[in-house]
Amino acid sequence: MCKFKWRKQVLSEDWPLLLEADPSKGMVEIYLEQSDILEVREQKELIGILVLKSNDIQTSEIMNLSVREDCRQKGIGRKLIEQALAFGRTKNDRKIMIATGTTSLSALLLYQKCGFRVEAVERDYFTQHYAEILIENGVVLRDRLILSQEI
């Protein structure tokens, strides 16, 4: 049985999952300070994480979402997103945003299945904000999609 829990502090065991979703530790450290963290554990083992940052009074953004590889395809990512939407409602958010690479096909499908819609494309985001070239699904990752959902 999975147990979900919100917290503020970052634990050392979070880093493998955080860096799987965003390979820049510096970028992750910047948004972690202003975010809430939702963990999911199974038998006390961390199997998933979501980072939710308040952008302004009525908008929050899912900055990081990762599920341990051996626990994927079990609905855990969807449950993390549902919990984030519910948490946003308790804070009176009107919109939740999430961004992903244009080559992140499985993530993009998940977000759309959860009701998110493409709002904008940031051309060359990854080539301008990351020192290393990122390759995903055999394609150089250049552009970032911004998706949102009214809640």
UniProtKB/TrEMBL annotation:
<dbReference type="GO" id="GO:0016746">
    <property type="term" value="F:acyltransferase activity"/>
</dbReference>
<dbReference type="InterPro" id="IPR000182">
    <property type="entry name" value="GNAT_dom"/>
</dbReference>
<keyword id="KW-0808">Transferase</keyword>
<protein>
    <submittedName>
        <fullName>GNAT family N-acetyltransferase</fullName>
        <ecNumber>2.3.1.-</ecNumber>
    </submittedName>
</protein>
<dbReference type="InterPro" id="IPR016181">
    <property type="entry name" value="Acyl_CoA_acyltransferase"/>
</dbReference>
<keyword id="KW-0012">Acyltransferase</keyword>
<dbReference type="Pfam" id="PF00583">
    <property type="entry name" value="Acetyltransf_1"/>
</dbReference>
<dbReference type="InterPro" id="IPR050769">
    <property type="entry name" value="NAT_camello-type"/>
</dbReference>
<feature type="domain" description="N-acetyltransferase">
    <location>
        <begin position="1"/>
        <end position="146"/>
    </location>
</feature>
